[in-house]
Design goal:
Number of strands: 5
Structural class: alpha/beta
Number of domains: 1
Distance between the termini: 18 Å
CATH architecture: 3-Layer(aba) Sandwich
Order of helices and strands: EHHEHHEHHEHEH
CATH topology: Rossmann fold
Largest sheet: 5 strands, parallel
Length: 159
């Protein structure tokens, strides 16, 4: 079975209050559909970084995010992952203000998961960053997971 690292935006979109933004509302619906119907195709993992992020904010929403994540296996933020995350920031591939995004990428790479599932299209699922990231990850002797949104993992109804 394929493995997938669940980044913080996934439980955030799943439990979010309905949005007035068409884009946000669509992402919420897609996330719920994938989580409810498509995630069974994967062994799901997360990290303490996700748990820390998901646990912040409004208490009721944080509890709902944490409830979704409680069944996932937590991957260790190893020394290698921590160092790689620091390298992603020090090379400015990932901005310092988004250091936690570097941790998500590093943990997924070090633990060799197949997919990194996210709605973070600014620093993670960004095609311009992904290209440079692939080169950097390879230079460290690692493999970059497929970075994608839940929408990309939904199977076509006709399949």
């Amino acid at each position: 079975m394929a493995t997938a690292y669940i980044e913080t935006t996934i439980p955030s979109y799943y439990v979010a209050r309905p949005s007035n933004s068409l884009t946000q509302a669509a992402r919420q619906a897609i996330t719920r559909k994938w989580w409810d119907e498509g995630r069974s195709e994967f062994d799901l993992f997360t990290s303490q970084e996700v748990l820390d992020e998901a646990g912040r904010g409004e208490h009721v929403m944080a509890d709902a995010r944490m409830a979704l994540l409680e069944e996932l296996e937590v991957l260790e933020i190893t020394e290698r992952a921590g160092n790689f995350a620091k390298d992603l920031v020090s090379t400015q591939l990932i901005p310092a203000k988004a250091a936690s995004d570097a941790v998500h990428i590093a943990v997924a790479c070090v633990h060799e998961v197949d997919f990194l599932v996210t709605w973070n299209c600014k620093h993670i699922a960004n095609p311009f960053i992904r290209k440079r990231l692939r080169v950097m990850v390879a230079s460290f002797g690692m493999h970059l997971p497929v970075i994608c949104t839940p929408e990309e993992l939904l199977k076509d109804e006709d399949d």
